[in-house]
């Protein structure tokens, strides 16, 4: 007989600035990990944690796991992205406001490519390719930056809100 243990989503503590973990590079996810209950639990926990803070994306590093995994909220539901790599970025950029669950209270303008082409692996470990534009492309670029230890405040030319919070965090 085969049965599964019901899993409950748990709220995880968010890693926030100035935690140095946010500056580290995440490692590729191993295909075998995708078949584990630990991975399924991790996705559930990340979703609950993101929803609890009204986020539109969450990278694993933000809950303390240095692996190249992110979840993104889309119109069609939750999109987990595993080992995403942006293989094309349009030269045409677009400036828009960003915030980050790891830098609460801070908002700034960031220029991102309007259109990107992404390679990732799906939940079964198979390669998948897709294109994204506009806000969706912006969120992906923000999350992939997290995997490389880059934060939106590194790219912003204008902080709209929370500059005093940011200054405080940098002197700590
Ligand atoms: Zn972020």
How is this structure best described in words?
There is one protein chain. By secondary structure, this protein is of the alpha+beta class. It has helices spanning 37-52, 134-147, 152-155, 163-171, and strands spanning 57-59, 69-74, 77-89, 93-98, 107-113, 115-121, 127-133, 158-161. The strands form two sheets. Strands 1-2-3-6-7 form a five-stranded antiparallel beta sheet. It has a three-stranded antiparallel beta sheet with strand order 4-5-8. The radius of gyration is 16 Å and the shape is globular. The model has no long low-confidence stretch (mean pLDDT 94). It binds zinc ion (ZN). The site of zinc ion has 5 residues, from helix 2.
Short summary:
The chain is an alpha+beta fold and 172 residues long. It has four helices and eight strands; from the N terminus they run H-E-E-E-E-E-E-E-H-H-E-H.
């Amino acid at each position: 007989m085969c049965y599964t243990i019901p899993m409950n989503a748990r709220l995880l503590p968010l890693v926030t600035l100035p935690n140095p973990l946010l500056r580290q590079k995440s490692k590729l996810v191993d295909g075998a990990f995708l078949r584990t209950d630990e991975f399924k639990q991790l996705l559930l926990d990340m979703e609950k944690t993101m929803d609890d803070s009204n986020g539109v994306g969450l990278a694993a590093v933000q809950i303390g796991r240095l692996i190249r995994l992110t979840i993104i909220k889309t119109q069609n539901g939750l999109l987990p992205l595993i080992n995403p790599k942006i293989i094309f970025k349009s030269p045409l950029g677009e400036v828009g406001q960003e915030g980050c669950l790891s830098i609460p209270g801070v908002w700034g303008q960031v220029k991102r490519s309007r259109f990107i082409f992404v390679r990732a692996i799906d939940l079964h470990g198979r390669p998948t390719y897709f294109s994204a534009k506009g806000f969706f492309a912006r969120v992906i670029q923000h999350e992939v930056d997290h995997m490389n230890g880059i934060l939106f405040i590194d790219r912003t030319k204008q902080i709209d809100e929370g500059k005093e919070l940011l200054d405080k965090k940098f002197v700590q």
